[in-house]
Amino acid sequence: MTTRPVTLREVAKLAGVSIATASKALNGQPQVRASTRDRVLRAAEQLNFSPNTLAQGLITQRSGTVGLLTSDLEGRFSIPILMGAEDAFGSDQTSVFLCDARGDNVREKHHLRALLSRRVDGLIVVGARPDARPSLGELPVPVIYAYAPSEDPADLSLVTDNIGGGRLAVDHLIRHGRRRIAHITGDATYGAAQDRATGALARLAEEGLELAGDQVWFGNWSEAWGRGATRMLLQRDPEIDAVFAGSDEIARGVLDVLHQEKLDVPSQVAVIGFDNWNILAANARPPLSTIDMNLEQLGRLAAQRLFAAIGGTLGSGTETVPCRLITRESTAPVG
Amino acid sequence: MTTRPVTLREVAKLAGVSIATASKALNGQPQVRASTRDRVLRAAEQLNFSPNTLAQGLITQRSGTVGLLTSDLEGRFSIPILMGAEDAFGSDQTSVFLCDARGDNVREKHHLRALLSRRVDGLIVVGARPDARPSLGELPVPVIYAYAPSEDPADLSLVTDNIGGGRLAVDHLIRHGRRRIAHITGDATYGAAQDRATGALARLAEEGLELAGDQVWFGNWSEAWGRGATRMLLQRDPEIDAVFAGSDEIARGVLDVLHQEKLDVPSQVAVIGFDNWNILAANARPPLSTIDMNLEQLGRLAAQRLFAAIGGTLGSGTETVPCRLITRESTAPVG
DNA sequence: AGGCGTACCGAAAAGGTTTTCCGGAACGTA
DNA sequence: TACGTTCCGGAAAACCTTTTCGGTACGCCT
């Protein structure tokens, strides 16, 4: 418990060699005889030696750590990204410092300072909402902005292709023979809401279709809004045969009201959501088709880009990650 | 970008003092004249100096880091705990390494080794489900088990008071005049399911009440089970006036079927959930009363205990954190 | 026998900081 | 003037590892 960790010096002594050779033996350097290497390895094993990473970092000028600076840990977006990143780095070489700024600028600065003090090799910044956020500016380590892009085009950002996602959703509905497609979505001030709508409208236009319900129903990202909007929508246009919801939460509200109105899903009305938030989508009645933003992949990609940037040089601009269609039972071919 | 960080040596040179005095000045040591300290501080400011934490850790034998070893990052339980811990440590002194073992034992060992190599000052282990898990055994740093207790009573574990939670839920229903209370819950192999049922039954017994529906309805933690169980329950006993659901997911299923059966919530049947999983509970129709496990507080507590243990000595045994009632509209006094 | 190349190992510096201990200056006192 | 105090500042060791460079031993060639 209170015993100090064993050092290389002790391993060396037990193996009867110098510290230098012990180090070389353990790191697979060639200038050491096989028999000697064996002795060292056995000694290390016996003492359960594990090298002090701090000391290693001090001399190699590489700490083997990265900072993950998120703004909403409770949010459902940071987590998959975080997992993807953690996954890509692996525990072998790199460990991840997790910092949640809680959307507070001061706290973010604080965390940033702490991370730089710890000499992280790089930084991934995950925004809370998919709109551009202020750049951290010039830093001594490479930075990747994930989910929320940086305002500064000189930074490297990785974001979801929301336009493509909207297009994908509508395309799916069209392929299943739906013609009267409505779109209920969240807060109009979110770029994501705008982009998804843009993609949806573009795909409709290609097919020569109009949006059902006369408009895009912007509101907020809640189930309650999904319910309210659906009621208004049905009043305006009872003939719809599909709804594209801007989030799975909204889709749940849509489903709820459709049930109340005795409209069967999917035979009469198809519903597709967005986010593939499993707990909502998979447990819906019927299980909800939806668009997955591939956030883990985004996280993995961020880690890979960062890894490549460490030592090398970082790109710039915004890279988008495509969405993926998840087909469940809430959408089906007509007839 | 590629410029190496400034060191204490450079600060000292700029201030015209030795490295030793620079260090003392920055750390508030008394043996330095105020004017000298000022010079150093200004120099540090000017160079934007931030001390190399690796070097500090090397000499002080304290890295200022802790490891957070979780088994299900995607799960909803680790996250609040993680937030609480992150919160309690603050960014000032301590940073958190996040490691997700994905429920894999080998990966856990791997991560553990890496963390020890980084000379973390302590460890918090967050289990995936609230049943006892294997101990990590004797380690050179203090370890706290959160959410899932360690099998070894010599370890210190912090868990939710599920019995108290079950009691709390039923107590709330009773106080609101409900008499025919049923309990639908998840997987019977989960200690949490057993404990919540135990607490619920105990409170009923105190009141001289029987459980409605003849049994505790164990199944799994899904919305679908909530629906299925409710149908069976209504067939068995149509006269119930309250349902205590073992999770918010299940509660959502219960609500769904009650709506189908034209039973009004809460006037005819009250429903209370468990977890206070906001997205499910707050957006339900009507918003769901539920039991909150105070997981952030559990996380904060874990951090505090760990903090106290670092340097000092760690306690042992299992400490429980009480639950908290969240009242929304799905429960209301009868009449 | 002398010279040379190869294979192996160790001494020592380096990385950036903290901390102990000591020396010098300034000052007051006898 | 001699001496004791107090106050500041610096030299150097320590933390643990990696890496460079030099040295030894040995076999081989001429």
TrEMBL record, chains A, B:
SUPFAM superfamilies: lambda repressor-like DNA-binding domains, Periplasmic binding protein-like I. Residues 6-60 form the HTH lacI-type domain. Pfam families: LacI, Peripla_BP_3. It comes from the Bacteria. This is LacI family DNA-binding transcriptional regulator. PANTHER family: HTH-TYPE TRANSCRIPTIONAL REGULATOR GALS, LACI-RELATED TRANSCRIPTIONAL REPRESSOR. PROSITE patterns: HTH_LACI_1, HTH_LACI_2.
